Each structure stands twice: as structure tokens, then as C-alpha cells.
Amino acid sequence: MTIESLDRPELGVLERQISSTARDIDELTRTVLDHVAASGPLSVAALHGEVKSVVRICLDWLIHRLNGQPVRTPTDGLEAAAAGCARAGIPIDTVLHAVNVGCKVGLDLVARSGPTDTLGVVAGMNRVVELSKLVTAAVSKAYVREYKADAAEHQTATHNLTSVLLGGQPVPEEMRFAAEYFVLALALPAHPDENRPELDRQVVARRKLRRLQSALATLLGGEALSLLSVDGGTVLVPTSARTDAELDALVQALSAAARVPITATVVTARPDEVSTAARQAHELLDTAQGMGLDPGVHRFAELALQHQLSRPGIGRDVLGNALTPLDNHPELRETLQIYIETDLSRLRSAEYLGIHPNTVDYRLRRIGELTGFDPARASGLWYLRSALIARMGGPDSLAG
């Protein structure tokens, strides 16, 4: 059934016609608004503005319907009034409550003016219920349309602000932005389902991204700005929304939502520094991934040395060349890396590599002989570890 299906003359179900003058409808409207005001926090101005328009249209429809007359007000009028409520920030449940109160008033009118026979009473009640359903649908439709338009406008504004900040452009005065941001660089690994041949890899990846974006909106209430793809990206979190210590829990929650272990690095920046900070954060992320660090949040303080050693320059080249003698001995370079990653444990290194601990000792001695830096000595180990980091930033990176 539609509104239009009711727009036809019918015999009235009432023994006495209900007055449909503008004055009487206004009086009934005030009665409904008094009931709504007594049960809600809305201001008098809001009730006698947007909500009043909705209620009056409903009562006008209802009275003409009960009188057996065609519904004279088009659907567009109700939807326009409801849209005004949405734009004014009035909750939809408040508007629907007002509609329901209006329907109760209609039932009272049926009771006072209605027929004495059962069929007539049922017919009158059916008309009230019909209009209640149709009005509820029209109000809901208007709200959904307004919310979609508002969401699209907000999304556009958010995207524009994100682009301005990450692009290093001056922020226009009309754009609202935070005084300071945590600039997070995120790396999203593939979800296990992305590698299942019977599933569409792109569809699975997009679902992962949507889960992440939804969690961001839920956890930060729309305060975060982001530029993300299925592989990761950049998230700007106002420092007023989270503390540095809370970022770890935030990334854990995002990982749970995306259902993949997220690796993140963070740099703090003012709005005019965001572009540079984002570049630094992603360089740190490359360093963290190249070192094989665990998922979670990694900060500049813990990666400063590694980050500096992996930057292009003569220092990196000289350090990286120290491992050149191992290029033809991949098992030795792997042993050195595992030995350092296991906190210089012969036993754990041997277990990881599947060899005898004595073989680890032999390989470490060979590394010292070939490179001239003894991994058994602090000075030699420091140089070899630095060389590994430098190699990580070069074209022959150890990453992966």
C-alpha cells in the first residue's frame, strides 16, 4: 500500500464528521506537542518549528481520512517537513513519537465521534493504523536521505582535509583541524582468505579494508583522518582523542577488526608538519618491516639508530660493503641475522636454523674470518649489526 492508494474518496466510518478547519487542526497539533514536550528534552522552539510541521500534516491527513475524504497533502510535503527535522538534528525517534501521539489522538477521535457497530470501529482503527505505517515510512525515508547526504558531505570534507594535510598545503580557515596529530603509518598484510583460490582476492581485501575503516569511525567517533588502501596507508589521530600510550590498544583493536596483524609506526606533528611526518612514519615502517619486527606500534625512539643507518648516503654504503664477503655465503648471512634476532643465543639460533649449536659457532667464526669483524666481540658485533641494518635500506635489502 502507498500514500497514493489512499488518495481517493470513500464513505466515512464516523457517525459525526470531525471538524477539519485549520483552527481545529492547529488545536489538535498543540495537544500533541504538549504530550511530546512532557516526555522529551527538545526545546519549545524545535517542537513548534520542524516537529510541528510533521504533526500538523499527519493530523490533517488523519482527519480527512477518517471523514472518508481523499488525503489532500502530497507525500513530498511530509518528507520535506521530516527532512527539516533531520537537518535540525532532531532524533528520528522523537519525530516518530510525535507521529504515534498523533495517531493516539486519532483513536480518541474515533472513540468520541465513531460508529457504534463493530465493523465501523474496526474500519476507523484500520485507517489510523494505515496512516501510521505510511507516515512512519515517509519520515524514515526522509531521514535516510538526509543522513546519506550529510555522510557524503562529511566524507568529502574529510577527504579534502586529509589531502591538504598530507599534501603539505596551507589549511584553509574554514576547515576544522586539530592542533596536533599522531601520524600513523600502517601496514596491512593479506588476510588468509585472500590466498584461497575459490575466493575473489580483491573482494576479500576490500572487506578487510571496510572493517578497518568502520572500526576507525567507531573507535574515534569520526575524529581520525585516513588515506588507506588494502595494503595500508596513513591515519591521522588528534592528540586530543588519544594519548601516546593508548595508541597500542588502538592498533590492537584495529587489528582485531581487520582480522590481520597490523604493523604501525607513529610520529607526532602539528598540521603544517603532517606531510613531512607522514613521510618519516612510512620510512620508519619500512625499517620496522625490514627488520622483521612484530606487529604493533613502533616509535621513532626505538628505531632512531636503525632508521638513520638505513638512510641513503656514504655511511650506509660503507657499512653495507662490510658484508660483501658474505654475498656468496647466504647461510652465513642468515646465521648472523638469526643470531642477532635471538639475542645472541647459540641454542635458539641452532633450533631455528635446524643445525647443531657447534655449527652455529663454526659459522660465526667464518663470518669473522671473511669480514674482519668478530661477532664474538662487542665491537665486531656492533659493526656487523649496523651493516645488516644498512644493507636493509639498500638495493640488496635483507627484508623478507
UniProtKB/TrEMBL annotation:
Top-level taxon of origin: Bacteria
Annotated PucR C-terminal helix-turn-helix domain residues: 332-389
UniProt cross-references to InterPro entries, sorted A to Z: CdaR-like_regulators, PucR_C-HTH_dom, PucR_C-HTH_sf, RsbRD_N_dom
Domain RsbT co-antagonist protein RsbRD N-terminal stretches: 26-156
Any one Pfam family match given in the protein's UniProt record, by short name: RsbRD_N
PANTHER family per the UniProt record, alphabetical: CARBOHYDRATE DIACID REGULATOR, DNA-BINDING TRANSCRIPTIONAL ACTIVATOR ADER
Protein name listed in UniProt: PucR-like helix-turn-helix protein
Species of the source: Nocardia tenerifensis
